Structures are given as C-alpha cells and as structure tokens.
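ok trying this again, last paste got cut off
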Amino acid sequence: MGPGDSHTQRDDAGLEWLMQIAYLAGKSLDAEENVPPVLAAMAGLVPCEDLVLLQVRDDVMEMTGHWSRPGSTPGMGGSCAFKRQQQAFCERRVVKGKPAEALELPYLSGRDEVMALIVPLVMDYVCIGRLDFIRDWRAEPFSEWEQQCAQACGRLLALSLHNSAEYARVAWLADHDALTGIGNRRTFDMALNRELARAERYRRDVSLLLIDLDDFKEANTHLGLSGGDEILRRTAKVLAERARKGVDISCRIGGDEFAMILPEIGEGMANDLAQRLVKDVATATMSLWPMRFSYSISTYPSTSAELLRRAADVKLMAAKTRKGRIAVPVGSAVQ
C-alpha cells in the first residue's frame, strides 16, 4: 500500500467522522442536548485531551461546553468569562510560567504547558464563539489535516448553534410579548384554560385580574411611540416582579390591557393585590406621564369557569366609567 492509499483511507475516515458530526449537530434544535455528543465526536476526529466550547453572550466569551478525555490531566476551570475579540484560526502554546489568561485561555488552571488549536465559530461574518482543542505539550503538534478537520468541525458547530439560537428565539416569541417580555395573548389563553381546569378538578380558587391603562392614548400622543412603549414596559415590569414566581401568570393581552392569573387566590386577596399593583405602576410611570388605571377581578368559583373572562371584561368596562372611586370587586385607581 502506497502513501496515496493511506491518505485516501484517512480522508475517507475523516469524511465518515464529519458526516457523523453533522448528523449529531442536526439531530436536535436543543443546544444543551446536542453539544455533549458533538464535542465527543469531534474529539474522536481530532484527538485531544480537552475540547472547550466558548460562546459570545453579551459581548463576553463564556465557556458553555467541555469534553475531557477520561484520565486526562486535571486543571480545567469550571467556568470563565472574558471580553470577546475577533478570533483568528491559530495554534498556541501555553508555556510554563506564562499566565494562561495572556493567551486567552483563562479556563486552564494548574496546567503547565499545553498546545491549543483555536477555531473561531463564525456565522454571517460574525464571531459567535470559539472551539479550543487542547493537547499536552509533549504530544504531536496538530497536523495540517487535523487543522482542516477542526475548521470543518467549527463550521458545522457554528451552524448548529445558530439554528438552536434561532429556534429558541422563535419559541420564546411564540409565548411572550416582544415589547414587554411577559406572556402574550396565546400564553394567557392557554394558562387560563389550564388553571381553570385545575381549579375545577381540585375545587380551588383562581382569580383573573385585568388592568387597563386609561390614559394611554393621550400619553402616546404627547410622549411619542417610544414614550408609550416605555410606559408599557414599566407596567409589565411591575406585574412580573409582583407575581409569585412559578405560580402567577402575567400577560399583555391587548395594546394597553394587561392580565394576571392568580391561582389559589380569592376575590378579597386579589383586590388587595390589584390596588397595590396599580399604585406601584403609577409610581413607576409617574416620571413619564400621570397615568390612570382601571382594573377588574373575577374569581372562580364565585363566577363560573365558562363566564370568568366575560365577567372580567364587563367589570372592566364598568370600572372605566367609575374613575376616581375604589370598589370591590370593581375598582379604578387614580395616580
């Protein structure tokens, strides 16, 4: 067998590895599920002791994935973060006595000398991360063939991470209001049906609170769209912060209408919460515009499950005609 035959076999084996890596990288849109097997497969193609994935988050490089060969030298830091720089494909060697941070390998701790093959992860001409192949300094240097394979791995992984990020963004937008970050109408409808079914099954209370910004159109006219958007964001922030984490559901269900689903809270407690909320929202928006808010409360089982949302809407319309007064269960608050 001549040298050409051995090169052909090596190339065929490399192609099979890359096909397997591509399959693993595209197997799921969940990055947390994808990354571990992908890194393990890459380490099989380009032998190394450690393989480190770093991703750009808020303009900072963070270690988000790590594969280590069983029995390899310990000393890989659990986490790290450092300022992003446009990374070039290169090979580096950390020399004993020289800080690893100086060569942008801060996750190394207690390692004397290593070789690092650094592969930038680029998508649409933007560096989104880095893939670092780490070898002991006594091992064979990375060959040209291994460097080419590492670059191919980087391209596959960059595409996979980009797709995962886009999927996560779209999935988030499906359930959240893009402006305020709280739940949208779809989330509200699904959550209300779920909580009503649970309340009926276990004979428990659930209250629906609707809040409407009475003067929003006037504020929008004087402040402009950016000012109106800021009022909506501040309102949503108060609702999200006052909600019981993992229990209450805060949503924006219309242009200037918000809702909170309050499981296991009766009408009296819901009314107390509503009055605190509208005062907090008024305080949060005071520097922008003197807002007024109307709210309504409907509670199951006082109101049937079928009529809960309709009752809340009717009470809200009544509240908007009773500005300046506080009433239970229908009220309006003036800043």
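PB: full thing came through this time. Confidence is low (pLDDT under 50) at residues 95-102, 324-335.
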